[in-house]
Design the sequence.
């Protein structure tokens, strides 16, 4: 089945070493578009987590029956089906947040991280490993988008957790800096997200090189990996 | 060295004339050239500008020292070259003098940390740091960045200082729009009134480019002429920039004098003269060849006028310079001067 060492390796990869946003820099479009608030970033990551986990599991189950030459269309069919299911579930149970995230839920299908993991991991490993790989990649994206969304929300509008009431009605957002915080609109706009993401990547690289657990430059290896899979 | 090798070099070919100029002497001259403008600014608009310059300089020097330390560079030679001071003075002069202190501090931090050192420090930055700071702040805080002290109300020094420290309660009483902004709003409110009638209100618009502001602009112009005479800058970029602004505004003015202000107004208002002599001439983020400098200046002038008149922001100098900064390497590539002794293709 799955050993403890395998599991640790999978989670270390997904959450830190091969983090989808900070190391592989995949799926930047939704990252820039939805991380205007912490809650939006978290919800999109959770939806993506479901898709990566389920698509990894299904592709891995079917990997012996998928002809190598036409694997891409088949992967797309499987992932698109799962994205549609997640999209419809959110539309019925979390309709408010679904309206806010809008097109970016169906667009999870175009997120490179889904195909990167199917192609690089699920097509070569067992179902349980692939399922956990999808979950760990999703968690990696989740914490990155939560931190980025939180920073942008805090600097851009001086709030935290705004919009949480559409998920848990008993909670409400915080106004951290009080009512007369002018709000640095720059951080609400995509350039602000780029700059903050760059600072996060720099911090991650600094921490990694201090612990010297990267043999290759993380962004370089990520770029190479991204070129292998369709972007 | 083969001919191909020479062609790929970006320098003007030998024979060279040696120039006994250090970065520090150039920067000190730029600072000296800014002084008349600063003096007129402090007298006519308010001494708060001096406080802003102190805040900006202190922040910039602190940020410069911190970044140099982080990057493992020697503090002494880089800190005393005066480039951080030029950047911080330009920030103070382009920001509203009654902007709250933290706005100036964040502007100086953005300029030195992000726009200068993260790109590799002095000589490596593709964008003019002061203009990056201005653009980031006007996008982030449009309201605070358009609070200019009213020149008609004769505000007191203490009021301005309180505004900078963020303690002023009746800030609206101190502020008014810049002449450029006022003209834009007036045009929107009453599209039928000819522009000459509006500009005849000398209390706001003065004689050329806005009361008091036209004198500041003229002082920048004098400082710029002195820089030209000292050969710190060359005439190509300022001439191109001013020609771009004047040519396009004259064309619009001839086309419809009722809707467009005269070239004189556009030259003396906003940041045109400061930009022409102190911003477009930035040796790092601008072009290297003379022809390139002219193209750089001219395109920036055209864009500055276009953004100022047809865009949503009060002035276009910062954005036009940033856009042209991106184009500078391409312009340099296309205007490479011929190698000495070779004919032009």
Sequence:
């Amino acid at each position: 089945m799955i050993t403890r060492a395998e599991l640790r390796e999978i989670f270390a990869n997904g959450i830190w070493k091969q983090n989808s946003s900070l190391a592989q820099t995949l799926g930047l479009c939704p990252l820039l578009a939805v991380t205007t608030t912490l809650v939006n970033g978290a919800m999109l990551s959770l939806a993506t987590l479901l898709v990566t986990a389920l698509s990894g599991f299904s592709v891995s189950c079917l990997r012996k029956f998928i002809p190598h030459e036409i694997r891409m269309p088949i992967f797309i069919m499987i992932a698109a089906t799962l994205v549609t299911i997640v999209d419809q579930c959110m539309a019925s149970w979390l309709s408010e947040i679904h309206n806010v995230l809008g097109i970016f839920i169906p667009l999870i299908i175009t997120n490179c991280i889904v195909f990167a993991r199917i192609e690089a991991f699920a097509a070569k490993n067992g179902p349980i490993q692939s399922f956990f790989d999808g979950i760990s990649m999703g968690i990696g994206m989740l914490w990155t988008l939560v931190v980025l969304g939180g920073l942008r929300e805090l600097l851009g509008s001086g709030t935290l957790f705004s919009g949480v009431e559409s998920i848990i009605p008993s909670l409400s957002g915080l106004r951290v800096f009080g009512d007369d915080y002018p709000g640095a609109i720059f951080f609400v706009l995509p350039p602000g997200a780029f700059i903050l993401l760059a600072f996060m990547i720099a911090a991650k690289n600094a921490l990694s090189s201090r612990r010297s657990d990267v043999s290759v430059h993380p962004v370089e290896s990520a770029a190479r990996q991204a070129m292998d899979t369709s972007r | 060295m083969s001919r191909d090798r020479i062609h790929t070099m970006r320098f003007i070919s030998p024979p060279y004339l040696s120039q006994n100029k250090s970065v520090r002497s150039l920067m000190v001259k730029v600072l000296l050239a800014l002084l008349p403008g600063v003096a007129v600014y402090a007298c006519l608009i308010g001494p708060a500008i001096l406080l802003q310059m102190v805040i900006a300089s202190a922040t910039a020097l602190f940020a410069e020292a911190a970044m140099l330390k982080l990057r493992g560079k020697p503090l002494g030679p880089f800190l005393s070259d005066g480039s951080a001071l030029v950047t911080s003075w330009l920030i103070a002069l382009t920001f509203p003098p009654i902007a709250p202190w933290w706005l100036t501090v964040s502007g100086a931090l953005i300029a030195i940390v992000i726009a200068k050192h993260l790109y590799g420090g002095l000589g490596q930055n593709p964008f003019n740091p002061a203009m990056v700071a201005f653009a980031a702040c006007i996008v982030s805080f449009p309201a605070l960045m358009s609070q200019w002290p009213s020149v008609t109300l004769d505000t007191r020094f203490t009021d301005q200082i309180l505004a900078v420290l963020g303690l002023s309660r009746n800030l609206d009483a101190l502020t008014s729009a810049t002449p450029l902004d006022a003209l834009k709003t007036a045009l929107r409110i009453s599209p039928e009134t000819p522009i000459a009638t509006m500009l005849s209100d000398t209390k706001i618009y003065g004689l050329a480019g806005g009361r008091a502001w036209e004198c500041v602009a003229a002082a920048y112009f004098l400082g710029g002429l002195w820089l030209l005479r000292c050969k710190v800058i060359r005439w190509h970029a300022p001439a191109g920039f001013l020609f771009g602004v004047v040519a396009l505004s004259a064309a619009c003015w001839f086309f419809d004098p009722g809707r467009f202000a005269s070239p004189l107004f556009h030259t003396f208002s906003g940041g045109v003269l400061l930009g022409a002599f102190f911003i477009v001439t930035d040796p790092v983020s601008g072009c290297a060849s003379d022809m390139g400098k002219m193209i750089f200046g001219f395109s920036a002038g055209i864009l500055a006028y276009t953004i100022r008149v047809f865009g949503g922001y009060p002035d276009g100098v910062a954005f036009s310079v940033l856009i042209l900064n991106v184009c500078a390497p391409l312009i340099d590539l296309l205007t490479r001067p011929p190698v000495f002794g070779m004919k032009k293709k």
Summary: The longest helix of chain B spans residues 48-70.
